[in-house]
Amino acid sequence: MTRSTATAGDLPHLITLRDLAPAQILGLLDRAADLRQRFAAGPAPTALLDGRTVVNLFFEPSTRTRTSFELAARRLGATVVNFDIASSSTSKGETLEDTLATLEAMGCDAFVVRHKENGTPARLARHARRAAILNAGDGNHAHPTQGLLDALTIRDAKPRVGDLRVVICGDVRHSRVARSDAEVLAALGVRQIRLCGPAPLLPDPADFPGCALHDDFDEAIAGVDVVIMLRLQKERMASAMIADERDYYARYGLDPARLARAAAGAIVLHPGPMNRGIEIADEVADGAQSRILDQVANGVFVRMAALATLLDR
Amino acid sequence: MTRSTATAGDLPHLITLRDLAPAQILGLLDRAADLRQRFAAGPAPTALLDGRTVVNLFFEPSTRTRTSFELAARRLGATVVNFDIASSSTSKGETLEDTLATLEAMGCDAFVVRHKENGTPARLARHARRAAILNAGDGNHAHPTQGLLDALTIRDAKPRVGDLRVVICGDVRHSRVARSDAEVLAALGVRQIRLCGPAPLLPDPADFPGCALHDDFDEAIAGVDVVIMLRLQKERMASAMIADERDYYARYGLDPARLARAAAGAIVLHPGPMNRGIEIADEVADGAQSRILDQVANGVFVRMAALATLLDR
Amino acid sequence: MTRSTATAGDLPHLITLRDLAPAQILGLLDRAADLRQRFAAGPAPTALLDGRTVVNLFFEPSTRTRTSFELAARRLGATVVNFDIASSSTSKGETLEDTLATLEAMGCDAFVVRHKENGTPARLARHARRAAILNAGDGNHAHPTQGLLDALTIRDAKPRVGDLRVVICGDVRHSRVARSDAEVLAALGVRQIRLCGPAPLLPDPADFPGCALHDDFDEAIAGVDVVIMLRLQKERMASAMIADERDYYARYGLDPARLARAAAGAIVLHPGPMNRGIEIADEVADGAQSRILDQVANGVFVRMAALATLLDR
């Protein structure tokens, strides 16, 4: 295992990848790859975070991401508390800052936060006394561990990252995944990032500096090495002037014919959960070019790396 | 402790007891009894499943069974994830197969599945790549660990299993417990199994080969060594042409007078939760012949045995 | 660390502080302080409760108290099961006593119980076979660990407890916190306890022997060393003939001007969650005299002491 000399440095919180220097991003990816290798031989729990407590503060439901963080923390020996918002003090009128201060006073060391409003994790980071805040997705702002796990998955399959052409297709405008992916891929120096979707779902170009915008998927996918498909929230279709799911699939679904327009050996990613038959065909989701389950596997290691880095102070 | 030479053999999943050879069933019972002895001296956690992850995938609420599996897994050193269906990807349109694949990719080793539809655990077992599936109850099809814990409880009290006459009383038609009990008791070679309940709640005889059907409980209980009472779902009463709970209790409730018709020293089982005063009298539930709390205690050891056997590959 | 010779003695359950001798209370406070010192150096998990199982049985939502007990138990090495009442057998008509017996049969060692009805934890304690019951708040009856953590916080700041004048202000009539605080402070021999609130929210004096009642907060706070503010349930305001939140704050809110009427160096406590701007001003809640986060921190250690004492049999 060669290891770059990059380190994640002194990172107090993980809110958005825009805050990180490329060397810090590389440091996190390398640490994730290291942890993956250590666990490859089978169960090999480390005690790195023994006695530390990680709180899952999920204001939006997400079993997938919550479970990934929970497994990451527990594999490192941490205690995990799943904070039940519905029955919490927050629902009794306590401010979110007081909830944070209370849990910090109980000895909690890290907070994994998902919230529908942009900026909630950053706001908590400003109020934290000593705990680390990890953004697990806020509004359409950022989802940094998703960006990191996508980057690790891409680097595994295509190590010459500087040569890559990447397309991100779907509801880019409302996607925190697209933002974090574009940030991490720019930091890693990919050759080109194309964003594709129905015009009403394309973002303000200022949010994605250096990226090209397309509303024709056949054109956007031509010659790319990496295809990142996004989940379509069904309630967005109307505003995107899409008639129905069949119409969306015809224009923006990834089927084998369309994938054949990408470069030979192109890989396919999707953050999940997938709408099969809407944004992606079964043959692609389950096909040889899919790296969707690798993303999931890498997600746990990236989150272990992030927790270890933030709590190893 | 004598131990039979029976082993559970190479068991990939535990879906129904019909799939198991008698030697495999005996192997699981012996392993449960072994684990019980090891833990009898007080807390003595084993590290057999250290670093392994068990997921509770409960699509029907059941704190009792879920907690029993959770304690079993944790006593063996495993990490347990309670998957919250309500806030899960499955509720966002993800297929159950994709949920399984995702959790497997995160490194989960076993899935304890409860579902209201017959066949869901078997369907997941066909799609599992390397994880073990344990059926914790599907529809009216099977509840194999309940069958095993009932068998262990009966064998503890009445080791000469070949001599036993057993009655199962209640809504046999809709009961997965009755099916798994009948299967395990047939495999252990009991002398006679009688099924008793209101005629509309008696099963198709083809589902219970070799069992005798009765709608008169006084007749069915005469001379038996084991009485297994089933929980009455109140919503079934109408279809069973039962006027009310008092009527049911008068005809099918187990009270001391009725229990006196069984063989001397007969034991009483109930899978819980009990409807006291509907299917069972307080004096019987709490009496000397009740083995109901032994069932609960044995449930944890049987589930430890099942998890250890399935994951010890 | 000097340690009093007090011990908690042979305590089977913790239901109300009225059951405890002063020496037992001092024993619990000393044990909490000991544990705090051991954990001060950083993560230092003890294995005192290794292999033991603690069940959180919360029939009223309370993430704060539940999490505090959960962390306390896990830091001592215990396994914690959060019993989900909504999907439990209790909701299927099982008696609470049967739920307790079932979980005891599964090997659970302690039950942390919160219930809206007075006396539920005591009732469970009468039915427990070998498990310990810890009251985490029942109706307006008792919240013994809150009383203990308040006592520890007060003793830390003001070791000459016999000299102290204390005021408890708010809806004293409906407060289990007020009752447990008054009991523990009386046992520790404080000089004076004053109770203050709108007349309809003042308690029957027989419930608080030896305490003085006031409906004028400016008068009640004069010269006290400790101010314990209670949370106002908004639905109580009407019955208390309070016009609105501003009216309450004007008469019973703790702001810097009012706090200045207390003795120099007086400390402020609040059990949380706080209604800022209703019963307490931001400047006080976050000010130098506030011990509110110390209460939270001490809560975990008091609960560790209680669990260790009850289970160390």
TrEMBL record, chains A, B, C:
GO terms for biological process: 'de novo' pyrimidine nucleobase biosynthetic process; 'de novo' UMP biosynthetic process; amino acid metabolic process. Belongs to the aspartate/ornithine carbamoyltransferase superfamily. ATCase family. It comes from Dokdonella koreensis DS-123. Pathway: Pyrimidine metabolism; UMP biosynthesis via de novo pathway; (S)-dihydroorotate from bicarbonate: step 2/3. This is Aspartate carbamoyltransferase. InterPro entries: Asp/Orn_carbamoyltranf_P-bd, Asp/Orn_carbamoylTrfase, Asp/Orn_carbamoylTrfase_sf, Asp_carbamoyltransf, Asp_carbamoyltransf_Asp/Orn-bd. It catalyses: carbamoyl phosphate + L-aspartate = N-carbamoyl-L-aspartate + phosphate + H(+). L-aspartate binds at K92, R176, R231. Gene3D superfamilies: Aspartate/ornithine carbamoyltransferase. Signal peptide: none annotated. It is an enzyme of class 2 (transferase). One of its GO terms (cellular component) is cytosol. PROSITE patterns: CARBAMOYLTRANSFERASE. GO terms for molecular function: amino acid binding; aspartate carbamoyltransferase activity. Residues 163-309 form the Aspartate/ornithine carbamoyltransferase Asp/Orn-binding domain. Keywords: Pyrimidine biosynthesis, Transferase. Residues 13-155 form the Aspartate/ornithine carbamoyltransferase carbamoyl-P binding domain. Its EC number is 2.1.3.2. Catalyzes the condensation of carbamoyl phosphate and aspartate to form carbamoyl aspartate and inorganic phosphate, the committed step in the de novo pyrimidine nucleotide biosynthesis pathway. Carbamoyl phosphate binds at R64, T65, R114, H143, Q146, G272, P273. Heterododecamer (2C3:3R2) of six catalytic PyrB chains organized as two trimers (C3), and six regulatory PyrI chains organized as three dimers (R2). The keyword Calcium does not apply.
